[in-house]
Amino acid sequence: MGRRMSQTALNLLDHVLPEAPLRQWVLTVPFELRLRLAYDGKLLSAVSRIFASSVLGWYRRRMRDEGSPKGRSGAVTVVQRTSSDLKLNPHLHGVFLDGVFVPDSEGKPTFRALPRLSTSDVADVLVEVRVRLVRYFQRRGVIASEAANLEDAFAASEPALSQIAAAAVTGLPPAGPELRRRPVAIELRGRPGIVVTAPLCVAEMGFSLHAATRAGALDERGRDALIRYVLRPPLATERLTPGPDGLVRIELKKPFRDGTYAIDLDPLSLLCRLAAAVPPPRLHTVRYSGVLAAASKWRSQVIPQPLVPAPSPEATTNKTPEKPGGTSSHRCQYRPFIELLARTFSIDVTVCPSCGGRMRLVALVKDASSIARFLRNLGEPTEPPPMAPARGPPYARSRVQRRQTPEIVDREPDLFGT
C-alpha cells in the first residue's frame, strides 16, 4: 500500500494536478452512518459527488463575487476508511484547486487563485453539504427522523463481515476493547448549529469539515506531502509496536482529547479492525471532479503537458511515419520501484554504499539449488521455519477486559487457550 501511495501521488503530481495552489477539505459523517457508508458503494459515491459538487459550487460563486465569472475548479477526492486508531470511519479527503480556471480572450483557461478563506466560509460549505446529504439520505430511506437505518442488503448477505465492521466502528469485541486513560464520553448528536472546533474547522450535527491545510503552487515538497497524506495506508509500520502483556500497541498520530496517546489491543482485535479496513470489491477510492474529471472539456488544457525529449540524430534519421490521427496523449503509467524510492524517500538503490559507484543488474537467480548455495555462503538459513501449531478458538473475554476486571483472571483461560 505504501508503494501504491507513492506511485499514485507521483502520477497525480506529474500528469493530473496543474501548477496551482491546492487545499485539502476533509469531510467526516455522523457516527451512525459509518457502517452503512463503509459497504454501500452507491451511497458512498453519492456522498462523494455531493461533497465535491458543493465545494466546487462554492468556489464558483465566491470567485464570481471576486470578479471572475464562469470559473471552474477541480478536485481529487480520496476515500479513507479508518481513523488513527483503526476504527472504521469512512471519511473523504478532497484535494481542491484553491481557485478557479476562467477563459481568457482566446478561450483558453487561466487560473485565478482564491484570495482568502475564513472560518465562516467553511461553515457555509458545511451547512450546504449537510442539508444536501440529509435530503439525499431521507430520499433513499437511509435515515428517518435523523436516525440511521442500518438494515440493508449487506447485513443480510454478509452477516459475519457486517458484525466485524460494526465492531470496528464502535471498538467493541471482537474488534476491541482498547485501553484508554479514561472512559470515552458519549457525544450527543442531532443539535443544529455550527460549532467552531479550530480555525477553518467546523462541525454540525455529527458532520465536520476541515479546510486548514494548503500547499502553494510552487511548493513542490508541500504538494507532494499533501497528496501522499491523503493517499496514505491506514496504518504505518512504525506506529505498531508490541505492547505489555502480549498486547499490540498502536501509537496515535496525535493524542486524543482525553489524553490518550496510544491504544492496546488484543492481536485478534487488531486483525478484526484490519479486516474491516479493506474496501469491498469494485469500490473506487480515488475520484475526479470538475475540470480534472475525464469528461471535462478543459481537462486536456489544464493538466500538465507531457515533456517531449529532444530527438537524437539517429532517431531523426530513422524516423518512422506517424500513425493516422497523431500521437496519443500521455497517461499515468507504471513506475519502477527504484524510481519510487528515489523520488519519494531519496533512496537510490543503484549506488554502491561502499564506493559510491553505479550498480547494474547482472543476473536474476531463479534456480533453487543456486539460491541455496548463495544463502549458505552468506550464512543464512536455507529452509523455511516450521509452522506453529494451530491454536484454539478465542474466548469471549479478552486480555484488555481481564486487565480492566482483575477478578476474572483466575476463572477464565488466556485469549489463545494457554
Q: What structural class do you assign from the helix and strand content?
A: alpha+beta
What is the arithmetic mean of pLDDT? 82
Oligomer: single chain
Overall radius of gyration:
26 Å
Number of H- or I-type helical stretches: 13
Distance between the termini: 34 Å
Task: State the helical fraction.
Answer: 25-40%
Order of helices and strands: HEHHEEEEHEEHHEEEHEEEHEHHHHH
Tell me the major beta sheet: 7 strands, antiparallel
Percent of residues in beta strands = 15-25%
The stretches of 5 or more residues where confidence is low (pLDDT under 50) are 184-188, 319-329, 412-418
Strand order of the largest sheet: 8-9-10-1-3-2-14
Number of strands: 14
What is the 3D shape?
globular
Entry keywords:
14 strands; 418 residues; disordered C terminus; three-stranded antiparallel sheet; alpha+beta; 34% helix; 13 helices; seven-stranded antiparallel sheet; globular
Task: Describe what is shown at a glance.
34% of the residues lie in helices and 17% in strands. With 418 residues, the protein is an alpha+beta fold. Residues 184-188, 319-329 and 412-418 have low confidence and may be disordered.
